[in-house]
User: Fold these one by one.
Assistant:
Number 1:
Amino acid sequence: MAEPVQSAHTQEQEYPPLHGGKLLMLTVAVATASFMEILDMTIVNVSVPAISGSLGVSTSEGTWAISSYMLAAAVMQPLTGWISRRFGEVRTFVTSILLFMCFSAICGLATTLPMLVGARLIQGLVSGPMMSVAQAILLRNYPVERRGMAIALWAMVIIIAPIFGPILGGWITDNLSWPWLFYINLPVGALAATSSWLILRHRESKKTKLPIDGIGLALLVIGVGSLQFMLDNGNEQDWFSSPLIVIAGVVSLISVCFLIPWELTDKHPVIDLHMFARRNFRVGVLVTGVAYFGLSGINVVFPLWLQTTVGYTATWAGLAVAPTGILALVAAPIVGRNMNRLNLRLTASFAFCVFGFAIFWAATLNDTANFSQFATPRFMQGLGIAFFFLPLNQIMLSGVPPSELASASGLSNFVRTMSGSIATAMTVFVWNRRTDYHHAVLTEHIRNSAGAWTNYQTELGNRGISGTGAFDYVEHVITTQAMTLGVNDVFHLLGWMFLLLIPFVWFAKPPFKARGSEAAH
């Protein structure tokens, strides 16, 4: 058993760092678990139409399988610091993986939407601590001088997983069946849990018995749960035209209004809002949260549009979405190696310019575009991911003591996950509303006094399409065009959102020291 290292000025490194084969095995195990958790956020995106059809619900309701998972994970992420200190990081990590596997199996066995959403909800809850604890475990067990490499490797997993998520999700849906989206977690999770336990079972982090903030936790669950209900049911209930949605919104707002002052004054808060007193953490978290809203919105709406409007299968929709990660995979190691030489604020600004350019490019496409035309903007968008994630992650955690790393990561992941969940509901809502608007505008031109409509009817008649068949054909054309114009409006909105983020990056204040260098001093 490794002997703990005693230090006069820091306790974050309780054991000597790992080297050689053990370090490699730990990296693989942690990366595998992180890959599995991130994969589950994106693998379902391209399969929503198939899941919805199988369970007999609309595609809007089918997106509950995405938002329920993300919001449940968001609830647990702020608790990561307390859980890991109370039970130990290793035990928390391994237990989270095992429970994740269990509820993945239940998701695959679901026969109704409520059963699937309930299983996804609990799956999200048990996965909440996984990512933040994974990051802390890597930092604790890597040599100080190689901690930058550890975070770069971890970031690479976050970049790679979204590449494989849509492709794997599409292939499984088309060639097997959607339950296998969840069954594949069982062997992957077993490998990660077993490897992690064998290597780390005698290297548990220091445990501290702290009281839990019960009132803060209750306010958080009620607030986020009400928000979850509102987001899941808003599109079907016509949002605030429904008294039920209004009540959920009011309950969520009141809970948050009470939560903030309570957490600021409690000795052991569930969400340590004092983290936001650090300027760089505040800027990094808020900018990352808004940016993640935009990226998540695109990743949900784009494959839905390809399948419901353009006629792509889940596999081809996944292939069209996946190129985002290719350039990110190439650029991330370069950015990681040169992090200390780069102007991080300028680098993040460049990333948002790339995002804006790529999204505006995608907004020029219509349902007649070919595969390469759909994939190319996504390919270019990937360049921005490496220049966005790594610099903002370093800005965000610069100055955070290693002892508070798990809490800081949990809070940042909470904001990021909440943003992604809200984006899932809001972008689908905006797309539906803009589709209705464009459908109404286009329909206005279908009248006998319109010369263009008369000529179009004649052309349809020459093709053997007349009477009711002509109106059905035209309705299909109008709906297709309205959905295309609607998704283009969503792209324009998100493109401007990225460009407007650029000035906010510059509120961050140098120096942005790496955590490894800080820990060394």
Number 2:
Amino acid sequence: MAESITFTGLGSGIDLESIVKALVDNEKKRFITPIETWKTSWQDKITAFQELNTKLISFSTAVKSLDTPAEFLVKRASVSDSTVLSATATSSAFNGSTTITINQLSQCEKEIHAGHPDAQTTAVTSVAGTFSYTYSGMTRTLTVPAGTTLSQLVKIINNDPQNPGVTASIIDDGSGTSTAFHLVLSGNNTGADYTITMISHTLNNFATGGTSGGGFDETQTAQNAQLKIDGYPATGWIERSTNTITDVLTGITMTLFSTGTTTITVSTDTAAIKENIKNFVNTFNEIRSYIKEKTAYNTATDKAGILLGNYAVDTIKNRLNAIVSSKPTGFRDGYDTYVNLMQIGIHTDADIGSATEGLLIIDNAKLDEALSENPDAVARLFSAYFTGRSAHAKLSYESYIDGITEPGTYEIKFIAGVPPSGQIRLKGTTEWHPATWDNASQTLTGGYGYPEAGLVVKITDPSTSFIGEVDLQRGIAGKLKDELDALLDSDDGPLAVLEDNYTNIIKSADNKIEFEEKRIAIYEKRLKERYARLESLLSELNNQMSYLSMRVQQLTQK
């Protein structure tokens, strides 16, 4: 490795090393510093993209908590006597009060053996034997080796790979007698169908007899929960095998605790809904504020925001603004109670100079009024999820295919005849598409490859031809959810695409910097070599001048 070149300045009296350093630094400022500044600007853009992406994710989370009726329409269930049962309600529950009478709780069966001296020492059998029982119609016969203790018998029962649902355990009654330790067989399932029967064994040191056989007595009977709903049925009871009941009252889950009577009251939790709407507005405003800040132009300083003019940011802003300010898909003026956010008190502040200029603001009084008067209509505005309907007398909506059929308003052309036929098109387009007629169900189905693919409509009167419309609604939150999924796509989303492009630009800048650093290193080396030769020459000249000066002085003295 070649030694580095240094300058002492002793030979010439000139600080040549400082000269070289100054020349090299100037070269770096001319060729590397501009590239580094350029690189930093792209890194700042990527950082800004990542911050915007984080805010979009937060907004997406808020939107997804509102994009279906089940999530948006929060219901609250209260009970008059919480010792009898507890209740929760989903959006499908009907508001109002219901009286519940509990006659008995569901429970599992328990069988307890007459007793054994101990759990760990005394064998239940001195010879190989068997232990059998039947649970819910399934019989198990287990082999019990000679010398098996009571605790080991428990393990044999519990570790049986074909155990149908019985757990064995031991109770010590504390009496200290020869029957103080009792084997307990417990059904794992509640309900009258899960009984333990036909207990028997051939264990010669284990008590026999008992009402259930094999030395066992039933101490708890398998039974169903029994209840009445508003006095129904007049005779008998509604029965369920579990104390957690989900299929008696629509949208209500009851957990039974004891016998007795209580009243469940279901109401719309407007406070929770409003809090969700506030979160929706706040997270949306964070995006608007951030974009406004990063795309602003300060005329006083003549300085532009880092993302001013960026097409991806403009795309995001315009797409989201269009959704929150427009009518949701499949909604109609005069037909739907609410068709935009402004009608429920949410609008953009257009007051120039206001602290909230350009942001969504909530008129709390108007929103409260809408939630009080028609919470279901507010829920549809936000969260309608492929809700289908038709106002035409001869046409009704039947079904769609999730993930295939697109929301929208569709025109249906029915042509009476033998056989009948039909066509469908998205309203606002000009091209009719063929639809499949099913004579048995009298339905038309949209063809694949079109927006109406999988849409099924019923012709209620096929005697005459007509053109009608069907709405397949998607609420504002749903549209935003779909848009945000596209914007946040890690492969094709605009931010991801630009971040990838900008990363490549930064790599290119790094390559240019690396090239310039190598070039300047060579330049520095050559400068040092030149100035080393210069210093050597100057040193030699200085020596010669000193010699000549000395000779001149000598001659003068003579």
Number 3:
Amino acid sequence: MEDFDIIVVGGGHAGVEAAYAASKMGFNVGLFTINLDTIGRMPCSPSIGGLGKSHLVKEIDALGGLMAEVADSTAIQYRILNTKKGPAVRATRTQNDRRLYEMTIKSRLEMQEGIFLRQSRVDKIVVKDGKVRGILDNTGTFYKTKVAIITAGTFLSGTIHVGEKRIPAGRAGEEGAYKLSRSLKLLSLTTGRHKTGTPPRLNKETIELAELKRQDPDEDYMPLGFSSSISSLPQIPCYITQTSSLTHTLIRDNITSSPLYSGAITGKPARYCPSLEDKVMRFGDRGGHQVIIEPEGLNTKEVYASGLGNSMPIELQWEIVRSVPGLEKAEIMRPAYAIEYDYVHPTQLRATLQTKRIQGLYLAGQVNGTSGYEEAAAQGIMAGINAALQLKSAKPFVLDRSQAYIGVMIDDLTTKGTSEPYRIFTSRAEYRLMLRETNAVFRLSKYAARLGLISKKRYNNIKEIQNQIESTKSYISRTYIVIPRDIQRMRTRYTNQDTQASEKITIERFLKRPSAKGGQIQDLIKNKLIQKIHPLAAFEVEVETKYEGYIKRQQRQIKRFKDLEGFVLPQDIDYNNIAGLSNELKDRLNKIRPKTLGQASCIEGMTPAGLQAIQIGIKFSTP
């Protein structure tokens, strides 16, 4: 049968990015999925990005990935989140036409040279002498490869729960991958069980939208993708309501009907994204919980009822939905459900996402215990890149915590593991002021260019914008303006203290004033006090000027972190012999085997005293 350089198992967001990256690096990639019509599917929310997540999307884009550009081309709403907070936590979120998104993803893969789409269920990873040799599908056909990337999502021994009903499935209406899960366990990979879910889809025409709060799209936004154009699709609103006291009574009175509370579900759910049952039982003092009606697309009546995710019996779901103001006559087109599935404990992986035990076996996405399209896609692109580099016998590509949110996530997974579905947050990144969504393209494009993931023309365009940033920073440091004369047309953006006494100062000093609000660079350009520059450059100049002191402090922190990263740890060291470490730390260090002191510093429970003990122990144990 067919031979492939790399085989990707699974056509979700992780598998898509893995296959796309590896093919661009010159390898033939077989992408195997149970159903070719569901490649790139959004099985839950029809949206991309959001708090923390848009940082990942823009990093994927900087590395030449697909997600951002496809999100932009299928966006039917843009929203900018956290605009009243600092630039480090600002985030972009799109609502997308679900069907158009998956069709576009599939089309991009079909057009990409080196990707071969195959509809087939993979049942076994064939390993010999600790190395991947190929895969077996459900027909018993063998496909030879040296590298396999498993991106099976919720399909590994998936079980759907709706009330007392148990349905073996990977997603609603799709078969699961049970033999593949057993195959991974037979390879001595330790697995756990996680739980997630999805809310009901409702018929928009049966909702009293006039009774709901309308949430219109933002007009002032930048696309997620660097090379994207503004979406040509109509931009449409979402609608907001909230649960009622009747909703909560229905759930409390019938809580034993929920498999979450009956004991039927054993998988660990995510605390940060609780089901409606959990919200009511854990936060019973709240009068209501937000429900957002999100469009599923431009050519469908289906809408996504975010906030109503549950695993109650279907007849009870109808009562719950109709207890929500504005939804009294709503029809459920697809019921909500919970799903349990197997995942592999990610501490068994290297930072490249290759398993420590088996050469050529990579894991990416929910199989590593994560949750979310963006987290999956980010792992997928890194697994694809490193699989290709392995075949080239080249140095692995690993991003550290100071370089990218991707580095934060993978480091968290491989050093700390996760007992619940992992989701990225800006709070997880120690150096988040340096890891803004708007500077991702400047942080990572040099690596993408070196790896052959982006074109030379694109990279030159990025470097030109970087030159604009530096030249503009130089210009504003030596160019003076007179206040209030030069800002008369901008008075509404500044406080009276800037418009009373005449004062001559540099533009740089003016931008650093607390009274100068966001968007001042654009105002200065309009007043012809600064030459016209790229919007991304304008934003970065403003941020780097206003937060210069904080940025310099974070750069010093990164320098200290890099020093720790430069301290390489012997891989044969027995941490049991190092005095000053707790037994718990010894066990974790022996299990994870960190490569550097920096990686060791991120292990759960590590302290400065523990790091010092390791350094001393190595010093006195080295001949």
Number 4:
Amino acid sequence: MLLGVDVGGTFTDAVVALDGRLITAKAPTTPSDQSEGVLAAIEAALSKANARAEEVREFSHGMTVATNALLEGTGARTAFVATEGFTDIIALGRQGRPELYRLCAQRPAPLTPHEGRFGAPERMSPDGPVRELEDAAAADLAQAVADYKPEAVAVALLHAYRHPEHELAIAGALRSALGDVHLSLSHEVVGTFREFERASTTEVDAALSPLLAGYLRRLVARCDEAGVPEPAIMQSNGGLIDLQSAAGHAAWTVLSGPAGGAAGAAYVAQAAGTPNALCFDMGGTSCDVCVVDDGAVQEQSAGTIAGRPLALPMVAVHTVGAGGGSIAWRDPGGALRVGPRSAGANPGPACYGRGGAEPTVTDANLMLGYLAADASLAGGVALDAGAARDAITQLAEALDLDPLACAEGIIRVANAEMVRALRVVTVERGIDPRRYALLAFGGAGGLHAAQIARELGIEEIVCPRASGVLAAVGLVVSPRRRDVQRSVFLGGDALTADAIAEVADELGDQARAELQEEAAELRATYELRYRGQAFELAVDGELHPDPEQLRERFEAIHEERYGYHDAEQELELVTLRVSARMPGIDVSLGAQENADPPERAQRSATLDGEPIELEVLRGSPPPGTKLSGPAVVELAESTLLILPGWAGEVDEHGTIHIRTGAG
């Protein structure tokens, strides 16, 4: 029995994989201590599976602890140690402004205040030490840091990615002076060049790791009481890692939640025969979008989260504050706006009946008839149609609109925000969204998928049976993974097969050792550029590639990205990254055997300002079921809205495929 639990902003999702079947459950998220909601979701899933906690063999977990702390700018009291003269590197950042036409726009402040920054009396060049670090100086530095009384320390020295000796010496002195205070060393956290990005990532890692470690300790204690095994943790790169490694490096888990959804979407896309898909994960608080090409989620070697650069491999997910709980409001100019503020899990949308009084996207869907007033949402939430109507009517009066028109306006504004997010990962990157299917998941994804697909010109929508808990499914099927990377700067005559193989073998051995799996599969990524270029392009390849083959692949990507290549230019290998992976398991996505057929009914609704009658299917339709709009399919944890002119059927895995113009 395998268990996956994903914590969202509104609900915590659990999936049990047992004898090839999937049993799913939801529980409200508990923001004050996410571990409470995790155990509640586990108990609900085990109860549905009629199973005991002792039967769980593996437990995989995705959470938002590090994400929320980074978004809120909170963290442990952190000291930052850099080479003398470079202690303000994070505050200075880079020359570019955060927003080109807003001169007053500010970057987020460093997580370490000025008085918490300390200069190390040393200097390292790419070729070795220029100024040696004396033992006495390291001890004095450590004592000065100890006097600051930090909860964590980040150490990021110049060129430590190539020569970590001084960082290791400072770490030894700090441990002697501070005991078990958390230390983050840049060559261990990142391992690549670009001082600002490396320093920023190390500071984030140091500030968040004590918070994450505290949460994981509470979770493990609850798991021990319940008889559930210690969880593996989802990283930002879409792979699982052991709990101790995650607790020691919180920066690796900042996109833990979205990465689980991306992994689940890629798994479904392959199984559904649509390996090229735009993934659209709309939950209660936010919407995450990404691209799956040939069954694999697009990745990036670095990213920016909450305005802070993270120089770590991660899934290429873009997030916007548009979810089912996003609050609709009137701005000072009299315009209708939606989000990014969310009603969250407590009190939740007005229709949840928990004291929320502000109108949300879920309230609008209920008022328009897309959700049933007489049915409960997953997690046992009973809907209050009167409360939803009252909340939207109050906003409608402020906007001088009819309440139904206001509800449709809320949906259109939220859809516009999500369309904009999908354009970021497609059109703005030179990708035509019309060549992809739209894979909709999350509790609210299916309700908005058809309208968003219509706006982008997408002709096919894919909605898995477990769409409401797909991030938890992704946790169950994800591989265990450890990435190790190093900036090597090999170019010209130095870029040889032997030189590449030497570094690749060393990194591969390190990745396998840290994953604790000697049999792990190794994959390599080569970040290449023409000599003199400022940035690199990533090329995937075997562990021992021929340099000419690397050049051919690089120039093909360069041609596609920039419209040209230059066969005369010298090629430079900047960074080599090796990933060690142990594959996940296969699970059945279909419905349980002998499941009851869905109930059929009719419901009045409003669409594009006109009243319509929706055909309603309550339950998962069996394979081969034909569907045509206007209709809604009420799955166990989500709802799919099928517009007029859209039709399709259910495949062998229980996944719904609908196409425009097929009805």
